[in-house]
Amino acid sequence: MELFTGDEEVIHVGAAYLRIVGPIYGFYGLGMSLYFATQGFGSVVWIVTANAVRLLANAGCALAVLYWLNLGAIGFFVAIAGGFCAYAALTAIAISWVKEPVAKQL
């Protein structure tokens, strides 16, 4: 963060984001890799739907955390991390649905 600003508050919030969400980016990467795998199967509808659900869940949880629960930035970061975990789980489920019909065709 120090490359972009010297403001201590920005550095503190950025570091909190990286501590909370940073380790979870692997789940988002898993979801993205499964998305690319479904392109090979020729069917991305379920994976795109999973990403749309993740986006809506992230937005809904973030609004709830910020406006109703008043948890601030930390709660917002937890909502983002939860969305990434949900995306990985939904894409894993979706790829199992996509892969079955293709396997039956072979």
Quick take:
With 106 residues, the chain is mostly helical. The chain has one domain (8-105).
Verbal overview:
- The chain is mainly alpha-helical and 106 residues long.
- It has one domain.
- Helices cover 83% and strands 0% of the residues.
- It has four helices and no strands.
- Helix 1 packs parallel to helix 4, helix 2 runs parallel beside helix 4 and helix 3 packs antiparallel against helix 4 (72-105).
- The model has no long low-confidence stretch (mean pLDDT 82).
Layout of SSEs?
Blueprint: H1 8-20, H2 25-41, H3 45-68, H4 72-105
Helix pairs in contact: 1-4, 2-4, 3-4
Percent range for helical residues?
A: over 70%
The percent range for strand residues is under 5%
Mean pLDDT: 82
User: Measured on Cα atoms, how large is the radius of gyration?
Assistant: 17 Å
Which keywords apply here?
mainly alpha, 106 residues, 0% strand
